[in-house]
Amino acid sequence: MSEKLWAGRFTQPTDAFVEEFTASINFDRRMYHYDILGSVTHARMLARQGIISGDEAETIVQGLQGILAEIEAGDFEFTVAREDIHMNIEARLIEKIGAVGGKLHTARSRNDQVALDVRLYLRDEIDAIAQALGTLQAALLDQAEKNLDVIMPGYTHLQTAQPVLFAHHLLAYFEMLARDTGRLHDLRSRLNHLPLGAGALAGTTFAIDREWVAEQLGFAGVTRNSLDTVSDRDFALEFCSFASILMMHLSRLSEELILWSSADFAFIELSDAFCTGSSIMPQKKNPDVPELVRGKTGRTYGNLISILTLMKSLPLAYNKDMQEDKEPLFDTIDTVRGSLKVFAGMIAEMRVNLEQMRIAAGRGFSTATDIADYLVRKGLPFRNAHEVVGKTVRFCVENEKSIPELTLEEFRQFSADIDGDIFSYVTLEASVNARKATGGTAREAVEKEIILARQALKESSP
User: Fold this and answer.
1) DSSP string for 165-202
2) Contact at 8 Å (CB) between 161 and 153?
């Protein structure tokens, strides 16, 4: 038999460079476990349906299990001549058990076979990524709980706006990751339908039992249209879209960690285990991990665009172009898993400089809005109160004073409605703790959110 299991139609061997150019074994070999799992189940289904005998199915299954052992022991020779993971395994199966191995491919095509392999592989990766997301969320909650009383400046336009709890800031990223987890679960439910049985594009003439195979492999159901089944890569696109949003969130946090760990901010210190030094400047401690995650975000975006562009003009059904979906998908999976793993450790070991954060929170007139709220409670329309506070801040700037340093007389020159109780409104603690509404930065609100977040994380864990 020819090295090519499809070579009957051909009279010339494949050009050596074409053979190498069209092969995918160098990257799809990582799916070997799923290819064998799908083949074992397919063989057993063929026997149940009387398409092959029980003895033939058992011989095939034992041969496949032997190949799995060879691969995991490092004794299996992958070859470009056999193109992909499917042909490498099937050809080896025929070598091991003879002609009966050729019956395995009855009632299936590489088109529905690869769709099965990728879905099985991606499903397990999704479960692992969901767990890694939970680990990072737990690290954020630990830091929030440990630093519950730390006050920092909140920013808009990177200008000091209002004081917030550092824990509240960290919980913002917890919420982002919670949405990411929701997107991950959503896309898992959509991919979790069995494609095997679609054949090359039109289904099969054999009386197969797709529902039984789906049940054995843990799928929620079967795909409903054979043409769509073999040409669909929405699950890969959805995953890369999820990954792009997730990496954008990690990139935003990376940017803040980079800023906060600089000498100019000095809000945090990252562990030495997640930083590197300079080859020329011995004093340097560079935040390489968040910088690299920030950089890998662009790479992830590129992978999404690659698959979108790949799919945008393909007629139904399968086209060889679709072989190009795996490298960007696999790279995205590896990037996401690595980024989550390193981020969880980095956040867990991060040290917080509470004194420096508090000093920064007191700069930039961060409690100015509290004076406006105070005046509104006195009956002044907000726009009038806004003007009063604006003049107060200008006075502070001109006289190099902070708001808490003003005397009552200085306050009252801008509004007679200001009384001695104003000083209890313009402290950092008062400003923070006045914002008690759900979602606010008050200590009691944040503490409640930490409890709810832990409960939600516990309930979502497998």
Assistant:
1) EHHHHHHHHHHHHHHHHHHHHHHHHHH-EE-TT-TTTT
2) yes
User: What are the pLDDT digits (tens) for 157-211?
Assistant: 999 999 999 999 999 999 999 999 999 999 999 999 999 999 999 999 999 999 9
**Share of the chain residues as helix, strand and coil, in percent rounded to the nearest 5:** 70, 5, 25
Q: How far is Cα 378 from Cα 265, in angstroms, rounded to an integer?
A: 37
State residue 180's pLDDT score: 98
User: 305 is written with which tokens?
Assistant: 């665009």
Residue for token pair 């935040």: 287
The Cα 86–Cα 31 span in angstroms is: 9
Domain boundaries, the chain: 7-106, 111-142+165-354, 360-460
∠ CA(104), CA(38), CA(46), 5° rounding? Answer: 40
Q: Is residue 64 pLDDT above 60, yes or no? A: yes
User: No. of H helices and E strands in the chain?
Assistant: 18, 6
At 383, which amino acid appears?
R
Assigned CATH topology for domain 360-460: Ribonucleotide Reductase Protein R1; domain 1 (1.10.40)
| DSSP for 243-282, written as a single string | HHHHHHHHHHHHHHHHHHTSTTT--EE--GGG-B--SS-T
Q: How many Å apart are CA 427 and CA 272, to the nearest integer?
A: 35
The 10s digit of each residue's pLDDT in 408-435 is: 999 999 999 999 999 999 999 999 999 9
For residues 121 and 108, give the distance between their C-alpha atoms in angstroms, rounded to a whole number.
19
Helix axes 32-48, 110-146, angle to 10 degrees: 130
Q: Are 424 and 403 in contact (CB under 8 A)?
A: no
Reported pTM: 0.93
Q: Which CATH class is domain 111-142+165-354?
A: mainly alpha
Cα distance between residue 179 and residue 196, in whole Å: 31
| Domain 7-106 part of CATH 1.10.275.10 | yes
Active site residues per annotation: 157, 278
Where do the H-state alpha helices sit in 324-367?
326-349, 354-362
Angle formed at CA 143 by CA 138 and CA 148, multiple of 5 degrees: 125
